[in-house]
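Q: Sequence in, structure out?
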Amino acid sequence: MKEAAMMEDVVTTNAAAERLGFVHRFEAGSDPARPPLLLLHGTGGDEADLLPLGRAAAPGAALLSPRGKVLENGMPRFFRRLAEGVFDEADVVRRAGELAGFVAGARAAYGLSAPVALGFSNGANIAAAALMLHPEALAGAVLIRPMVPLAHPPAANLGGRPVLILSGAFDPIVPAENAQALAAMLERAGARVEHRTLPTGHGLGQADLTLARAWLEARRA
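A: Exactly. Output:
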């Protein structure tokens, strides 16, 4: 029965992809105490990439997982970049608006409350941008290996939204000061930020799952 229900979710999602603007996967939740998760993959991932992480981090939560619409050498991303670590900020603004619109449409289509974003790398960056540009779209965020997506974002009021940032001490892509600047930026905007630096590089690991799961567990209704 569980497998059949999950397949029904996927079929429904494919039919709704054009209307909602993103190819995506949706899995209905079984635990109403858990907020839904918006899963945002890294460069080269797709809508299936973070589903196992979402299921493990928040068992029973509804999962909404879009595929980034920007292609870089055939690899999906959520916005354009000009070079490694150099973002096309006009595209960041545009794509964050598209993502916020997708979230609003998906909430209406699937009967969801505001989701908590769980993003990795490029997905964490677009989640941070969405928080700053469209705070109404998200209830909070787990940002794994994020960078500052916008050098000078407009003033935002995040109203105490909780944010967990998980950085890597040996990350060759994200300088430590950049991650710290993002944490400070979100705090100034009114978010309640917890920033943890792990003894790892840029990739996902068991420690990320353990910390994300404990953080999400503490935020059950």
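The radius of gyration is 16 Å.
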